[in-house]
Amino acid sequence: MSANVNQPDPTRERLLLEAERLFATKGYAAVSVRQITAAAETNSAAINYHFGGKKNLYLEVFRQRWRPRAHSTMAKITPLLEADDLSVEKVIRTAIDALWKGPLSHDSQEFFLHGALIHRELHNRTEAWDILVEEAIVPFYDLLYRIFLRIDPTVQKAKVMLNCMSMFSQLVFFSHARPIAQQVMGQPPPEDVEAILADHITAFCLHGMNQTGDQP
Amino acid sequence: MSANVNQPDPTRERLLLEAERLFATKGYAAVSVRQITAAAETNSAAINYHFGGKKNLYLEVFRQRWRPRAHSTMAKITPLLEADDLSVEKVIRTAIDALWKGPLSHDSQEFFLHGALIHRELHNRTEAWDILVEEAIVPFYDLLYRIFLRIDPTVQKAKVMLNCMSMFSQLVFFSHARPIAQQVMGQPPPEDVEAILADHITAFCLHGMNQTGDQP
DNA sequence: GTCTATAGCAGGATAGAC
DNA sequence: GTCTATCCTGCTATAGAC
After folding, report:
1. Is the pTM of this model over 0.85?
2. Containing structural domain, residue A184
């Protein structure tokens, strides 16, 4: 009858939660353990007790909170390996759905932080980079390659990689540079910016990838 | 006959130089004034004397070093406003040349830092953000819009903006995520990765932008 | 396990000699 | 203008009471 049988340590969980939020929004160096412990409403020694230091806490954020979400995102794309009606457009739409409405979404605060952490590692690499590459980046692009191989068995791996990265780059850009988009396009923004952007990216990538050989 | 008539204050210049390098590579919070002054081979009080504090030094990096390069990049695209043989491809190639071989280039360390600073501001905004938006981002997209307007006077501004941002996103991604590209495409990388990426982006954007209305 | 107190150190900024 | 010495604040990490 205990309520927290599935919560092995609430304090530890709260620390991970707040740590992710702060690291993702401000960056590792700009956040102090005191800020995290204050946000998690515990004492300043808690991080050292539970994780053995600030650095280990950062890594644990990736292991405990980032990793499971990355896997669930992959799981949304994997079915395409056996889907019947496969097309370039369907792959693009599925990938955008999985990432854009998943890790890179603006609506879900949790997934926004997920994407922000990737970005920060991209520019300031730590040991967490290895986790990212091994468990998310390489498998993600490999999966997409195997899917595109089903559509066109003669496709070049390098070309697929480049195309997928072009798609990915737009997803991360528009998810994090939303303020730019609105500032440049001129205020006020409509409510359905998300859908407009998703449609734009889909169309842009569809044409960008469907280069029917007439290009030098 | 004095040699440094054009160098108003060598110490100040060295501080700006090293500050830009360190801020761009490590980020504002992760860099200490002691590191900067040590790199500039001066005393630890120099920053406060010359700039009045760490924060002002950061802003001065944008004013003194970032701004002129941004303007010279714009100058490379401006001639298209009056060019005779205008085409979508030419605009794309010119923009990629100006940015990719300019601010976002990997070859030129100076311009690499320039791009890195944009990226950091994108994710951790400070007062420098206003300089960026006013002097670079808005004018840049406005300029491209006016150029595309010459090609097709009926083009929608919002669509141009989105297309240009899609192009820009790939440029910044591939310039900073080069390690990912090589890691995902599999080692070893050829020497002309830069050219391959530039060609890919050009082709991808050309097709992505040339959506001839056959798209739902 | 939780918390307070504090050690030990590095940070930015400043005062004042030269 | 340059530098040293120093102040004070804030940091991480730890010791030890409870």
Report:
1. yes
2. 65-209
